[in-house]
Prior knowledge:
Isopropylmalate Dehydrogenase, 2 domains, about 15% strand, globular
Amino acid sequence: MALPLALTMGDPAGIGGELTVKAWRARHRAGPVFFALDDPARLAALGVAVREISAPEEAGAAFTEALPVLPMRLAVPPVAGLPAAENAAAIIGSIRLATELAMTGHVGAVVTNPINKAALYQAGFAYPGHTEFLAALTGAQNLPVMMLACPALRVVPVTIHLALRHAIAALTTQAIVTTARITRAALCDQFGIVRPRLAMAGLNPHAGEGGALGDEEINIINPAIAQLRAAGADISGPWPPDTMFTEAARQTYDVAICMYHDQALIPLKTLDMHRGVNVTLGLPIVRTSPDHGTAYDIAGKGVADATSLIAALDLAAELAAQNSNSGPST
């Protein structure tokens, strides 16, 4: 029997609670079993039947009739749209406990609701975000890699949350190689793709046009491709960024390795804004999350779209099943 999924609280002032309730309503009859690490009272106030549990293995028996909740009590009642530093301990504790349960084999995967990092920083949170915190909790050897996935496309940015000028300055052959190697291993181990096809994006218009429009392809990207091919990777490129995301081009690869944040996320969100899922590669556990933030502007209004969270739960269950059926790649 499949292990349940652990769904973290996220920022209780955001839309995470609404998404959790909507996801349970959408999946409680025929979907992956999950439980929330959250405050039962605040979820019950959203009009859903709640069943408090004391251990993950109790989630399955409750799931069809009520949302299973492993209690994480809030310090102060949440107010929609207004994050409270007093609740930071519960938010962080939810992530920590979910990760511990995954590391000890009690849950199949961790799915994280959106957090507001600024609110956590005020409470002394020492990490740039979810990914770095999860890396520390799991003892990951390399900084994990962010993949965004939807049914039509998978993308991985080499540089992530940097101003464009800083992203270009930070781009190195080694960073590209490391990102691509972690991505390739994850596609084998977690996604079950025997020989993943990687497509490398160029940085400049027309992939530099032989150096006429920039030399990063010649000096940084091509050497990375050569190293990866020498190690046995099936990799093409560098592709002109303006043509590599067409429907025909997407059929030729399993993932696009992109040079910076927007180069990766613009095509994915244009193709499928609502079903985009954030997958963290390079961790010893499966972790997914919806591809959006806390959405304070619509919190508490009941209009939040749970499609991305539902997709994150479904993908987490698929990856967890794949992991249980296969060993690591060599």
